[in-house]
Specification:
Helix content: 55-70%
Order of helices and strands: HHHHHHHHHHH
Distance between the termini: 11 Å
Mean pLDDT: 91
Largest sheet: none
């Protein structure tokens, strides 16, 4: 599992680091398609591997019979997707329909945390480790959170390289730690920034994941790895 995460990290962050160079050759739309297909091409089989081996290793605890654990896991998992897919970005650019561009974001969920994917992945890992209770799940969680922590540094470095002092000013007004910038008075939540159609798409995705979760587990079991 750690090998899967390492390969994904090298490719995903590597392509992100080479964005400007690759875009200068193939263009921003082709780069976006290449980045998305490569990332999905690694993430999907890695997810299948996790599902098929989630009970490997030692059983550290078993709390699946507790009603409160089920509730906590469901809530954490749902909230994690709101951070993992924050709908901060222009969806037309994500799909390469519109020309993808790099920007400095300071609205919506970015007011809560500058790197929402780290928060989302941490919540997802906590939920699944709590539910599964295996050493395999724990090692996977440590690997994923470690990579996303590196991605925070890597992402900030790329933004500083591109935007310089403008990014440093934004960095001073935001925080990686959720709600820290708000508590410090540097940010104020603006609820209307969350009233966007894209967030409905995220909520719909969350519902689909819960509905088809048993189907996903069943289909993954048919894969040999």
């Amino acid at each position: 599992m750690l090998a899967w995460i390492l390969v994904f990290a090298l490719v995903h962050s590597g392509l992100a680091g080479w964005r400007l160079r690759v875009e200068s050759v193939v263009g921003p739309r082709a780069y976006r398609v290449l980045f998305a297909l490569t990332s999905l091409g690694l993430a999907v089989p890695m997810l299948v591997y996790f599902i098929n081996h989630r009970y490997d290793g030692w059983l550290l605890w078993d709390l699946r019979g507790s009603a409160w654990v089920q509730g906590v896991v469901l809530v954490l998992s749902a909230v994690s997707f709101l951070f993992l897919y924050p709908a901060t970005f222009n969806l037309l650019e994500v799909a390469a329909i519109a020309k993808p561009q790099m920007r400095l974001y300071e609205t919506g969920i970015t007011r809560i945390t500058r790197h929402p994917q780290l928060t989302g992945m941490t919540l997802w890992c906590v939920a699944h480790v709590l539910w599964l209770g295996t050493s395999f799940a724990l090692v996977t969680a440590l690997g994923l959170v470690s990579y996303h922590s590196f991605a925070v540094w890597h992402g900030d470095r790329r933004l500083y390289t591109r935007y310089g002092e403008a990014f440093l000013a934004l960095k001073a007004r935001t925080s990686v730690i959720p709600f820290a910038a708000i508590l410090q008075g540097h940010q104020t939540l603006v609820l209307k920034e969350f009233l966007r159609p894209a967030y409905l798409g995220v909520l719909a995705f969350v519902v689909l994941v819960f509905v088809y979760h048993p189907w996903l587990v069943e289909r993954s079991a048919q894969v040999f790895w």
